[in-house]
Amino acid sequence: MKVSMKLFFSCIIFFSFANEALSQFLVSGKVTDAETGQPILGVHVFISQSQIGSYSLVDGHYELNTQERRTFSLVFSHIGYFTQVFEIANLNANQTIDIELKPDVKQLSEIRVDGKEDKKWGRYLKRFKNTFLGANHDKEQIMIKNDFLADFSYLKGRDYRVDNQPIFKIDNHFLGYEVEFQLLQFQESKGSAYFGYSNFIEMEAANTGEAEQWRLNRRDAYNGSLTHFFRSVLENTLGPNGFGATYITEPKDHKDRKMDFFENDVRDPLRIKDTQVQKSNISIISMSDQYYEIAFDQRLEIVYFDELDGFGEPQKSEIKITAPLQVYPNGIIKNPEVMVVFGFLADRGIYELLPFEYNPETDK
């Protein structure tokens, strides 16, 4: 989904909860069939967007060890069953979570066996990959190992949307991750959007050269990304990070903030698409030190000046939201389903997707 103005602020918000020593917590339980009560073997249990995951044993038991203290989605996924999601807020103690999964007979009956022979399906798959994996993806570097499971049977026209796709198993040799992605929503029209639950397993590099290349590729994928942008917004470092200078008024408690934008700065990346005189129509509200809610009117334009697009111009993108964005302190969006992306960032997909644990400061 490829400074003329001085900064009016110097304070950077330090998130103490991100730096404090974290305890190890155990999330465990049992997964059973909702109809038969029998344990289910091989259920993928994972924290979405992270590298933390495991599988249920023959008795249905699972265990996850984690230091996550943020609000996160615990996902239970298995082919032939409806995916179950359990929301955990600020994990600070061991938890036992038993889950019953409901069988999804339709999912099993609709697995394709003739996909390669269906030309229409093949055309949709090609377009789907171009958006989902990323317009700039290298076919030699990334592949969906089970793309034959993709279901495009209800699509019409050039603009299309698909829902509740199976768990795609993806090998991304560009960044060095095996990714499992439960795709819930995907659309391709004037803008692109996809939403689902993801889990990452770091690949083992064949040699130091490959490991170094992965490090460089991850750094490039992070720079100019939406994660990089929103982290810069929350830390008041838009200018130093190449996104331009934005004035943010800071109340004493740092809890509620308003953002104002200046049209006369050529490096200012934030311009609301409206002809009226703008006021403070972007707000940031802290949600119990877990994440921030960012709300704005109309479309938000982002310009990344440190890299150029294919036409030799700064990278330009726009985002539109249907509800406030929930953004973690590191810039990762908790609810991407409320956002549609246009422009340069709309072409960046799974090919450049990084897990929650990725930190550019430590990956040097």
Description of the structure:
Mean pLDDT is 78; it is low at 1-21 and 245-280. Strands 9, 10, 11, 12 and 13 form a 5-stranded antiparallel beta sheet that branches. Strands 14-15-16-17-20 form a 5-stranded antiparallel beta sheet, with no helix packed on it. The protein folds into 3 domains: 16-108, Sandwich (Immunoglobulin-like); 112-202; 228-352, no CATH class. By secondary structure, the protein is mainly beta. The two termini are 26 Å apart. It is globular. It is built from 5 helices and 21 strands.
Notable traits:
5 helices, 364 residues, 5-stranded antiparallel sheet, Immunoglobulin-like, 3 domains, mainly beta, 13% helix
The largest sheet is: 5 strands, antiparallel
Give helix % range. Answer: 10-25%
Overall structural class, as computed from helix and strand content, comes to: mainly beta
The average pLDDT value, as a whole number, equals 78
Poorly predicted ranges (pLDDT <50, ≥5 residues)? 1-21, 245-280
Globally, the shape reads globular
Number of DSSP strands? 21
Radius of gyration: 21 Å
What is the H-and-E element order?
HEEEEEEEEHHEEEEEHHEEEEEEEE
How much of the sequence is in beta strands? 25-35%
Helix tally equals 5
Number of domains: 3
The N- to C-terminal Cα distance equals 26 Å
